[in-house]
Specification:
Elements (H helix, E strand, L loop, with lengths): L2 H13 L6 H10 L3 H21 L3 H21 L5 H24 L3 H22 L6 E2 L6 H4 L6 E8 L2 E7 L7 H15 L6 E5 L6 E6 L25 E6 L4 E4 L14 E4 L6 H13 L4 E6 L16 E3 L3 H23 L33 E7 L1 H8 L1 H11 L4 E7 L9 H5 L3 E5 L12 H5 L14 E5 L12 E3 L6 H15 L5 H11 L1 H4 L14 H12 L37 H17 L4 E2 L1 H5 L9 H14 L2 E3 L6 E3 L2 H4 L1
Length: 673
């Protein structure tokens, strides 16, 4: 019987015909629903009294009544098995007490005082139970779901207080003790969505952290994210990176936001974030939402690696401190970050910061944050850093899983956050350890087979399902991150759209960030310069975008090559196509070219040193034997010889190992000296 049926029955009983008028009639109407237990007590009293007159002293009847009492109690227990546990126990106890009293009264005569006391207690217990069955305030209504819970295999679950908001229903759920758990609800979410004829993402479950059988079932019947909202600029231009980054909205209209730095007062740790989504899912626009928010803050520096040649981010390049296109330049950037981490943590520790906070970005005028024994030190501040790796799977391959995981684990303490953006985070793209080092996830639509690699099991169990969107709902996403309550992690959200009209606003933002954004602090800049040299120091100059001009030595070398030409070849224009082969010269065979020059050991070593210097001059600071062998004709030596020389350079400090085997960092000549 549903809650509505109980209320209707109660009102019918109140409104039914009865004798009497005025106060008497009112009292009779109110008393009628509670009379049955008292009538039952009275019936037992009359029956036991009559039985005593008829069968007093009859031993056979006494034995029969005893056996009948046991059988009746057992039958009551069996018949009540489909009811609740409390009702079953209450019914069995009542029948047992009534039958036992009747047996005793027939054999020995009814006792007035025990009968009255016992009868009153039993009748009142049923009146109290009857009162509790009525629930005008909706605090607890059993089976008020119209049979929904039974259909999805949760028949004994009780739906409690229900909160109805615009486009959102939240119902407290209590499962059958010992027989059901919160896991049973998460497994039934798809069936609940099917029963209600709603999309899978409209149903989610929020377990009570203090109970294994209680939680809240949340139903959002209408998708409020269908309206596309265009990006019209950052949410807090001129603010701090310690303020929230707002990148869209949840399905209830509240802002979709997160933090990168930690906050000791809030108990929030700093974080790295993984952005994933298949082609067409809106991941690119989501990444732009994040990056534009970061660039609008005045105490953060961004370094960007994008193998796609800045296809999405080109309007923002002026506001980015160092941007590279992948490959060896990305390796150099990573090596610079590796060197910057201990330098930054050392500076933060010397100035009394257990983690980066907004005061660290300002000039150090507070004696509490001084590197001197007494008084303020006045040191320049240290802005927050973001290392952004677009197509992160490629960057991880350059670094190696272990190398990336190593720096990711240490970077957060140094005031550095990494952002990795990639289509798939499956096991063939990154290891489980690497994925675990990226605690925050911004997940857009994906292939259903990849959903398990994007969000934690707890969020997926609560009803999050990015695989249901695929690329059919651009911009739809889930955000799982520190600082945001866990019950928000499975809530669908949507980021803002970047249209062609957004380009001019992005260019204005980048220009503003170039003028007003933070510059690298001396400590971080020195760490980068010490390990990657010109690759870093020339990042903003012409050398970063234009070919490096030839040195005087190179020009003299070219002039010498021209002087070796035969007289008849001097007038040849190297830009013109060669003419036809003269008749009779088709089968002319030229003698084989001479072998590579036979350098002495000293000359070959000098040639290899010159190659390293050329790489350093061009800003290519991470190399392997492969790159050198492409110019092997300059010294006529094998790869094995080159590898041996690399070992010597390692011992001499001209080369240093990187996080990936077979790749070496060129130590700048000045640093080596």
């Amino acid at each position: 019987m549903t809650g509505k049926d109980i209320e209707k029955q109660h009102e019918d009983q109140l409104q039914g015909a009865s004798d009497g008028k005025g106060i008497k009639g009112y009292l009779l109407h109110r008393a009628k629903p509670y009379l049955p237990p008292w009538l039952g007590v009275g019936g037992v009293g009359v029956a036991s009294t009559v039985g005593h007159w008829v069968w007093a002293g009859d031993a056979g009847m006494g034995m029969g009544l005893t056996l009948g009492s046991v059988a009746l109690t057992g039958a009551t227990w069996w018949a009540a098995k489909s009811t609740g546990r409390e009702r079953r126990i209450h019914s069995a106890i009542t029948v047992a007490a009534a039958s036992a009293w009747t047996t005793h009264a027939v054999a020995f005569g009814p006792s007035t005082v025990p009968f009255v006391v016992g009868g009153v207690v039993v009748a009142l217990s049923w009146n109290i139970r009857q009162t509790m069955r009525r629930d005008p305030d909706g605090a607890r209504v059993a089976a008020s779901d119209g049979g929904l819970m039974e259909k999805v295999g949760l028949a004994k679950a009780l739906i409690g207080k229900t909160t109805v908001e615009p486009n959102k229903v939240t119902a407290k759920l209590a499962l059958e003790p010992g027989a059901q758990s919160n896991d049973d609800v998460t497994k039934a979410l798809l069936n609940i969505a099917s029963a209600l004829d709603l999309p899978a993402t409209a149903i989610r479950y929020q377990p009570d952290p203090d109970s294994a059988r209680r939680g809240s079932l949340v139903i959002v019947p209408k998708d409020m994210l269908t309206e596309t909202v265009d990006w019209d600029g950052p949410s807090l231009p001129g603010g701090s990176i310690a303020d929230p980054l707002v990148i869209g909205r949840y399905d209830d209209g509240s802002p979709l936001m997160f933090w990168l730095p930690g906050d000791p007062e809030e108990g929030r740790n700093s974080t790295h974030i993984l952005i994933t989504g298949m082609t067409g899912s809106g991941k690119g626009d989501g990444a732009l939402n994040v990056l534009t928010e970061i660039l609008s803050r005045t105490d953060v520096v961004v370094m960007l690696s994008d193998p796609k040649s800045f296809q999405d981010f080109r309007p923002l390049l002026p506001g980015i401190d160092w941007a590279v296109e992948g490959g060896a330049p990305t390796e150099a950037m990573v090596e610079g970050l590796r060197a910057a981490i201990p330098a930054r943590t050392r500076w933060l520790g010397q100035h009394g910061y257990r983690q980066w906070e907004r005061a660290a970005a300002q000039q150090q005028t507070d004696p509490k944050h001084s590197c001197k024994p007494s008084g303020a030190c006045g040191c320049p501040g240290m802005p927050y850093m973001v290392g952004w790796f677009e197509e992160g799977a490629a960057s991880i391959r350059y670094m190696g899983d272990e190398g990336f995981t190593e720096i990711a684990q240490l970077a957060r303490a140094a005031g550095i956050s990494f952002v990795l953006s990639m289509q798939r985070a499956s096991h063939d793209q990154m290891s489980t350890t690497t994925r675990a080092s990226l605690p925050s996830r911004l997940t857009f639509g994906c292939d259903e087979r990849d959903a398990g690699f994007t969000l934690s099991d707890a969020v997926l169990d609560a009803g999050a399902n990015p695989g249901a969107w695929g690329n059919k709902r651009p911009g739809y996403c889930y955000l799982e991150t520190t600082g945001v309550p866990a019950d928000r992690h499975p809530v669908p959200a949507r980021t803002k759209r970047f249209s062609y009209a957004s380009i001019s606003t992005m260019e204005v933002l980048a220009s503003w960030a170039e003028r007003n954004g933070a510059g690298l602090d001396p400590v971080t800049a020195a760490a980068f310069t010490s390990v990657v040299g010109k690759a870093f120091t020339a990042r903003k100059g012409p050398a970063a975008t234009a070919p490096v001009p030839a040195s005087t030595e190179d020009q003299e070398h070219d002039d010498m090559e021209l002087s070796r030409l035969d007289d008849e070849d001097r007038d040849i224009d190297p830009e013109q196509e060669l003419g036809p082969v003269p008749a009779g010269a088709e089968n002319v065979i030229f003698a084989p070219e001479s072998e590579a020059p036979d350098f002495t050991a000293e000359e070959a070593r000098a040639a290899l040193e010159a190659i390293l210097a050329d790489f350093e001059r061009d800003g290519v600071m991470v190399i392997g034997p492969k790159e050198v062998m492409e110019r092997a004709e300059e010294f006529g030596r094998s790869r094995a010889w080159v590898s041996g020389q690399f070992r010597d350079f390692l011992e001499e400090g001209r080369l240093a190992t990187t996080s990936k085997g077979g790749r070496y960092r060129i130590v700048p000549a000045l640093a080596n000296a």
